Amino acid sequence: MNASRPIVLVLLGCFWPGNDSSGPNQSFIALATALSDHFDFRVVARDGPVGETRPINEAWVDLGFAKARYCPAGRLGAVGLRRILNETPHDLLWLNSVFDREFTLPALVLRRLGWIPRKPVLLSPRGEFGSGALGVKPERKRLFLEAARKLRFWRGITLHATSEAEARDMAEGARGTAPIVIAPNIRLLLDAAPFAPSEDGALRLAFVGRIVPVKQLDYALDVLGHVKALVNFEVFGPAEDEAYWRRCQDLIARLPPNIRVRWHGETSNDGVVAALSRTDLFFLPTGGENFGHAIFEALCCGAPLLISDQTPWRNLAAAHAGWDLPLAAPERFVAAIEELAAMPASGRAELRLAAREVARRWTVDSGAIARNVAMLKAALAAGAAP
Going by CATH, does the domain composed of 203-364 fall within 3.40.50.280? Predict the structure, then answer.
């Protein structure tokens, strides 16, 4: 182990330059910044989004909170990953995502074959053991998890859950083959711009997330099709699943004229925060989140929530910060939007203050920094044990 600070080598494929609005990226930046006195972080990521190619740069880039190295994606995974894992001194290897074919799966195979140093490993599934996530391409994921157990991929690996609920999902999915440590994501309270109401009286709704089935943009559009109030619906996020995005576009084309939709595509984190600061309601009927970074950012910006009950952000009505509703009752989502549209300005202002307070209270109560230090130390100790 490094005599000063243990070196944590993080494989985080989505951490390419310019992709700062990604939730896992914001979480990693906050963690690496907060824990820099305890650990030395090195992050390896793909060099850009799918479809983009850039000249290969094998140099490490000093980002201040961590050093980063970017590599292109190849047919069998990230190009040069085996060499990077062998040449980069590290005390702990931190994998993100169970089903990532570019970094996690090649690293697990290389480790199982003994082709890379057998260092302690921490694996953060990022909500992938939740029922909503497992429900997308379920047979393929079931077969992989069965093979992973038989091939003992989880042996000597510590799993990272961000909540008790996620830990239960992981224990069932991995079937007790790896220890689970719980540590919440580290996020700091964001500064938001002052709120100003819309000029035309329309209710401003925002959706922030990757356009993929588990985020359920199509569900949101179905709900809006039954809303009578005037709504401007702003959608932020890359269309990663083209077939699914085409379905969403078809739904948009059939919406009544009182529902106006604008897609902004991939947007910088500053751009998202600015948009959330002028939002009346954050609408994300997600199929499942282990944390929900965009949800936290919306709360920081004072945007009340209309989300599913498949996230850790619960009992919002009791906190006067929004609604967390069952997906089996779309009519309740419609009613919530209509209720907000009919609410006086004073009532909406109370919701915004309460939303901000939920975020503030979470940053105080979570104990995230101390628990993440303990998690990384536990992973180091578990991997060092015979």
Answer: no
The CA angle 11-17-23, to the nearest 5 degrees, is 65
Coil, strand or helix at 49: coil
67 to 7, 29, 43, 62, 162: CA distances (angstroms): 11, 11, 6, 4, 25
User: Which residues, in sequence order, are CB contacts of 231 under 8 Å at separation 6+?
Assistant: 202, 203, 204, 205, 224, 258, 259, 260, 337, 341
Quickly state the pLDDT bin for 24 (edges 50, 70, 90): confident
Helix (H, G, I), strand (E, B) or coil at 95: strand
Model pLDDT, residue 386: 44
pLDDT band, very low/low/confident/very high, at 107 (cuts 50, 70, 90): very high
- The pTM score is 0.81
Q: C-alpha dihedral over 233, 237, 239, 245, to 10 degrees? A: -20
Which runs of E-coded beta strand occur in 209-302? 231-236, 259-265, 281-284
Q: Which residues pair with 227 in a beta bridge?
A: none
Give the closest residue to 230 by CA, choosing from 253, 194, 274, 199: 199
Instruction: Count Cβ atoms below 10 Å from residue 376 Cβ, excluding itself.
Output: 24
Rounded Cα distance, 73 and 262, in Å: 31
Round to whole Å and give the CA distance between 262 and 316: 27
Does 7-184+367-384 carry CATH code 3.50.50.100? no
pLDDT in tens, 309-318: 999 999 999 9
- Which helix (H) or strand (E) segment is 350 a member of? helix 345-365
Indicate if 203-364 has the same CATH topology as 7-184+367-384: yes
Domain boundaries, the chain: 7-184+367-384, 203-364
Distance of CA 222 to the CA centre of its chain: 24
CA-wise closest residue to 305 among 259, 258, 358:
358
DSSP 280-346: SEEEE--S--SS-HHHHHHHHTT--EEEESSSS---TTTTTSEEEE-TT-HHHHHHHHHHHHHS-HH
Residue in 284, 307, 312, 316 with CA at minimum distance from that of residue 206? 284
Asked whether the predicted pLDDT for residue 1 surpasses 50, the reply is no
Q: Do β-strands 61-62 and 67-71 pair in parallel, antiparallel, or remain unpaired?
A: antiparallel
Q: Yes or no: say if 108 and 153 are a contact pair by the CB < 8 Å rule.
A: yes
Q: What is the pLDDT of residue 71?
A: 93
